[in-house]
Specification:
The complex is a heterodimer of chains A (about 325) and B (about 575).
Chain A lengths: L3 E10 L2 E11 L4 E5 L6 H9 L6 E6 L2 E2 L11 E3 L11 H9 L6 H14 L15 H13 L5 E5 L7 H18 L2 E6 L2 H7 L2 E6 L2 E6 L1 H6 L4 H6 L4 E3 L4 E3 L4 E4 L7 E10 L3 E8 L2 E8 H4 L7 E6 L5 E2 L5
Parallel strand pairs in A: 3-8, 3-9, 6-7, 7-8
Antiparallel strand pairs in A: 1-2, 1-4, 4-5, 9-10, 11-12, 12-18, 13-17, 14-15, 14-17, 15-16
Chain B lengths: L10 H41 L11 H8 L1 H34 L5 H8 L8 H11 L17 H25 L3 H9 L4 H30 L2 H6 L6 H11 L3 H29 L16 H29 L1 E3 L3 E4 L13 H33 L3 H16 L2 H12 L13 H11 L1 H13 L4 H8 L4 H12 L1 H17 L15 H10 L3 H30 L11
Antiparallel strand pairs in B: 1-2
Helix pairs in contact in B: 1-11, 1-13, 1-14, 1-15, 3-6, 3-8, 3-12, 5-6, 5-12, 5-22, 6-8, 8-11, 10-11, 11-15, 12-22, 13-14, 13-16, 13-17, 13-20, 13-21, 14-17, 17-20, 20-22, 21-22
The chains are: A alpha+beta (about 325), B mainly alpha (about 575).
Chain lengths: ~325, ~575
């Protein structure tokens, strides 16, 4: 049986339906990402799971208990917001102590617990600082420690990394993933960043317009997208033959000389992106985006005409996809 | 699992406690809403119903209003009030704009000094400038010739006195508006080769336009509703605020007093509605990417700015100085030797020293009860209220006092609390009713201050608290109170100073043993004891300045200064 079961959940704000008939099972200990463009309903779904919004219809079951109409206060979860919501007037340890109050621990026990938690997120040296003395990444980790303080069955992360610099973000997503695996806490993370979702999630829930488009492992989602939306939203993709087929830019190769199965294309634009170079090429059917390893690309960067080739095994058949 | 191994907390107890808390905040919200209805709305309903009744309380429709508009002297007051309002607004806004512009858009020296001095009139009752003007330009005034034979007792005196007293209000609004200028716009204007006037018009004025309009409406409202200045120096020149006083205190004609009150409500309501409209428009002018504006160095503009601000400051200081000086003079203008005789208030009619101590008690009561009540009400409404209709009701009731002139509120309180069958009748004639009327009178600004403070506190804090089973009460104590300390502190001082200086609402409500200092100023002036009146007005001002100093020490140094997290780090 799944740890969290979401059944037929719908939600409208006024006449605007933001979630329509959502069904989803989340297993004990897995890290699931809700991924989608802004306005797809992912945050609303997270807030319904937390009890911060009430669904119009449908049921939620957590660890075998029906929590559909349980107030937020009675549910078992910890949450981290994009803004971290750390109390600016309290030190790091007092921020965590705030969460521990309902356990009614003895002073020494509470202190020990706070130290454990700070150790866990690698901030043991900062316990007496105020949030504005910490970097964004450190604040984020304090918020994480606070969310874990009550040992919740479910950890909810609402765009936890989007306020951070690219470097810190990359580092922290590894840290969060490691921590999550170590604790085995069932985790749901909302994000609009597909790279983040691919890197962290055990399973990704791709959402669009209040519906779930696809649920699957990162490989599933990337290699076997079941809809044009998913194919397009995760990574880049080229559609051809009236959108019946698609191919990823890294699966196309280019060369200066023609070969048996290649076809000639005109170079429309070249973008150097560091490790790879993105070509936009054109044939009589339309434009293709092609990613070439920059080591190979330098020889072709100034060519006007190139020869394009791909293997049929890389072509995604989108016939019948929505 | 690793070191994280403490057993799950028992959720059920926490849940029970939380449900209790939800009930607690719900009931508290209902209580505050009821209190607002009782102390703001119901008394006003009473005024309107009196205006529609004859002396015996029979409903007579608008016949009182017909009588009113057929009485030339009363209609004349309406005309006088509006023309005074327009003139004062023009002078105040022009002067306040020049002053604020000099402080924000030039590199003149001593800005902090001039900014502080601009606020001086706030600390004095509006009666003080009027008394000072009598000494300066009155029948025995030292600068009487400056008026070329015109009399200070009338519109000239009223306009000068009100301009003095309203100046800081307009200045604060315009100063804030001018300060919120995006430096990038000036750089862009320079790069477009726009000249001074072009930039002034299309950047400076256009950025500050809502602030300017707001200053216009606020000044107009204060000018048409003020009672003190017109009472002391108005002579035979009647305005609506003095008419209410005459009808009620002089002729005991409550019905006609109410009619004048309702008439006075109209320009104030109009001005209030216009100001709200402007405030709504104003919201989106600045964003996080704006850069501060640094004026260019120029000896000429700095010089002109310094001269202008000095001139205005000297005028303010002359008026205050005149009242203070006169209060220490033995017998104006015949014996100019120094004396403390005028401070022997117990020798005069008007309330004596007791009235001063009453004022101190009343102002302290107002500040303490008011700050707590308004803070809790605003917090419950902003952060705990889930019912949208209740929330809007509280917001609406909180906005009403801004539109209600003090004289009308005072009248409303007599009608409402003096009814023998009102269970709150026991409050009548106590210091408590004076404090409550002052809280009601100055409610709106305080409510808005707290609302703004809460807007800066992320709602996600409350959601975090929910996720770790912490109550609303915990949030109030741990987060809302410490974070709102600057707002709490400024509301406290605002209520204290206004309660010390106000005359309008309380003039109807004091009893013989609850006379107030500001009312004593009025009564002594009325009785011809103008020097003691100046002395009492001076005492009020000095008290308010001292309160400001003590307040600075307690709040800014001892409380906010110790909240090291405000300045720590980044």
């Amino acid at each position: 049986m799944s740890y969290l079961n979401i059944k037929n959940v719908s939600k409208s704000f006024g006449s605007k339906e933001v979630l329509s008939n959502i069904n989803l099972d989340i297993q004990q200990g897995e890290l699931v990402c809700f991924l989608g463009p802004s306005g797809c309903g992912k945050t609303t779904l997270l807030r319904i799971i937390a009890g911060l919004e009430q669904q119009n219809s449908g049921t939620l079951t957590q660890a075998g208990h029906d929590i559909s109409s349980l107030p937020a206060i009675d549910r078992d979860y910890g949450i981290v917001f994009q803004s971290y919501a750390l109390f600016p007037n309290l030190t790091v340890s007092k921020n965590i102590a705030f969460a521990l109050k309902s356990l009614k621990l003895a002073k020494s026990e509470q202190k020990k617990r706070i130290e454990e938690l700070l150790e866990l997120v690698g901030l043991a040296d900062h316990k007496n600082k105020h949030p504005n003395q910490l970097s964004g990444g450190q604040q984020q980790r304090v918020a994480l420690a606070r969310a874990l303080a009550l040992n919740p069955g479910l950890l909810l992360l609402d765009e936890p990394l989007s306020a951070l610099d690219a470097k810190v973000r990359q580092f922290l997503r590894g840290e969060i993933k490691k921590l999550q695996q170590r604790l085995g806490v069932t985790t749901i993370m909302v994000t609009h960043d597909q790279e983040e979702a691919l890197a962290m999630a055990d399973r990704i829930v791709v959402m669009n317009h209040g519906c779930i488009e696809q649920v699957g492992t990162p490989e599933d989602i990337y290699q076997r997208p079941i809809s044009k939306f998913v194919a397009d939203f995760i990574g880049s993709i080229n559609f051809f033959d009236n959108d019946q087929f698609a191919i990823r830019p890294e699966h196309i190769s280019l060369s200066l000389s023609a070969s048996e199965k290649s076809r000639a294309v005109e170079v429309a634009a070249v973008e150097y992106l560091g490790s790879f170079t993105r070509f936009t090429v054109k044939d009589e059917h339309g434009l293709y985006t092609v990613d070439i390893d920059s080591n190979e690309a330098s020889a072709m960067a100034h060519a006007n005409t190139l020869h394009m080739h791909w293997l049929n095994e890389h072509v995604l058949n989108m016939q019948g996809a929505a | 699992m690793t070191s994280i191994s403490i057993a799950q907390p028992s959720n059920s107890k926490a849940a029970q406690r939380k449900r209790l808390t939800i009930k607690w905040t719900g009931i508290a919200a209902l209580v505050t809403l009821a209190a607002l209805a009782i102390f703001v709305l119901l008394p006003l309903v009473e005024v309107v119903s009196r205006a529609l009744a004859d002396k015996d309380g029979n409903f007579v429709g608008i016949s009182n209003f017909i009588t009113y508009f057929q009485s030339p002297s009363l209609v004349n007051s309406l005309f006088n009030t509006l023309s005074i309002g327009l003139m004062v607004t023009f002078f105040v806004v022009t002067l306040a704009f020049s002053y604020a512009y000099a402080l924000t858009h030039t590199r003149m020296p001593f800005k902090g000094f001039f900014r502080a001095l601009a606020m001086l009139p706030i600390f004095a009752p509006s009666l003080l400038p009027a008394i000072a003007l009598v000494y300066l330009f009155g029948n025995q005034g030292i600068l009487k010739e400056w008026l070329f034979g015109a009399s200070i007792y009338g519109p000239i005196g009223i306009v000068i006195g009100m301009t003095f007293w309203i100046f800081p209000h307009a200045f604060m609004i315009i100063y804030t508006a001018l300060q919120q200028n995006d430096g990038r716009l000036y750089e862009a204007a320079t790069s477009c080769k726009a000249g001074f006037w072009h930039t002034f018009y299309s950047v400076t004025l256009s950025n500050a336009r809502y602030g300017l309009l707001s200053a216009v409406f606020v000044s107009f409202t204060l000018a048409v509703t003020d009672f003190g200045v017109a009472k002391v120096i108005g002579g035979q020149y009647d305005v609506l605020a003095t008419d209410i006083y005459k009808q009620v205190i002089g002729q005991q004609n409550f019905a006609m007093g109410s009619v004048v009150g309702v008439v006075l409500l109209l320009p104030a309501l109009f001005s209030f509605a216009a100001d709200r409209w402007v405030q709504k428009k104003q919201q989106s002018t600045l964003n996080a990417k704006s850069t501060p504006f640094t004026p260019e160095k120029s000896w000429l503009t700095s010089g002109v700015a310094l001269a202008t601000t000095s001139l205005i400051t000297i005028t303010l200081l002359t008026i205050v100085g005149m009242a203070v000086y006169a209060s220490f003079i033995k017998f104006w203008p015949y014996n100019l030797s120094f004396s403390l005789n005028n401070y022997q208030f117990d020798l005069m009619d008007g309330g004596g020293w007791e009235s001063y101590f009453n004022s101190l008690k009343m102002a302290t009561l107002t500040a303490m009860i008011g700050t707590v009540f308004i803070f809790v009400t605003a917090w419950l409404n902003e952060r705990c209220q889930t019912n949208a209709i209740m929330r809007q009701a509280v917001d609406f009731l909180s906005m009403i006092p801004m539109a209600v002139p003090g004289m009308v509120l005072g009248l409303a309180y007599i009608f409402f609390f003096n009814q023998p069958n009102n269970p709150l009748n026991f409050m009548y004639g106590t210091l408590l009713i004076l404090a409550v009327s002052s809280i009601a009178h100055f409610y709106t600004v305080c409510h808005l201050s707290f609302k703004t403070a809460f807007k800066q506190i992320d709602k996600e804090f409350d959601q975090v608290a929910l996720s770790v089973n912490r109550s609303r009460w915990d949030m109030l104590v741990k987060l809302y109170i410490p974070l709102s300390m600057p707002a709490i502190s400024s509301v406290f001082l605002y209520l204290f100073v206004n309660a010390m200086t106000t005359v309008s609402a309380v003039v109807f409500l004091y009893a013989s043993d609850t006379a107030l200092a500001s009312v004593a100023v009025l009564n002594m002036d009325d009785a011809g004891d103008i020097a003691p009146a100046a002395a009492m007005a001076t005492l009020i001002m000095v008290t308010c300045l001292a309160a400001k100093a003590v307040h600075w020490l307690i709040f800014d140094v001892l409380i906010i200064g110790r909240q090291t997290w405000r300045t720590a780090g980044a």
